[in-house]
Amino acid sequence: MKHALNEEEHKRLNERTAAAEKKTNAQIVCAVIGKSDTYAELPWKAFALGVSLAGLAALLLNILRPPALPWQSAFSAVGISLGAGAGAALAVVFIPAFARLFLSVSRADTEVRQYADSLFLSREMFAVPRRRTVLLLVSLFERRIVVLPDAGLVRQLDAQAASAIIRSMRPELIAGRTAQALETGVAKIEELLLDDGRPAAENTLPDDVIEEEGT
To answer: DSSP H helical segments within 25-131, as ranges?
Structure first.
């Protein structure tokens, strides 16, 4: 997998996270995921759209400039339609920005949240004393951010607080500055958790950014 963060960004984010953990008595885990699902339906959606638009264009062309022989009209329409459909499907595979045009907001939100839940459980982030852990996950393909607190932080990092964290990160993420987006998110979490009077949580999780290709 090609890493989203370079070595310097990785080190800086780890140091920033460790510093925030000391100040907040909480465990903060940052994760960068390439893609949260395969989305096998996206090429088919693009193919269908390409065929439909190309078929319409071929029809208009045949009306404006009728071919000499009737069979030429049918063959040209089929060829143009299938070619356009195949091109659109390939574009989905190789051009993420184009593929996102066929991805619904609800589907993206659901898949990224499910990936975050699965990662939280598989890495046993719940094993921290007093359950004071928060997962800050960025999924690059979907351009989605998930703030997933454990039971010990769920009151401080409620839905309103999570929305504030995500809003603070989104401009950097959209601009392609993943490391800066995560640093901004860590700073916002620190601001929300600072001085809550809780005893220090034992540092049982590695202070290292998780990077996965996803599915």
So the answer is: 41-64, 70-94, 96-99, 105-122
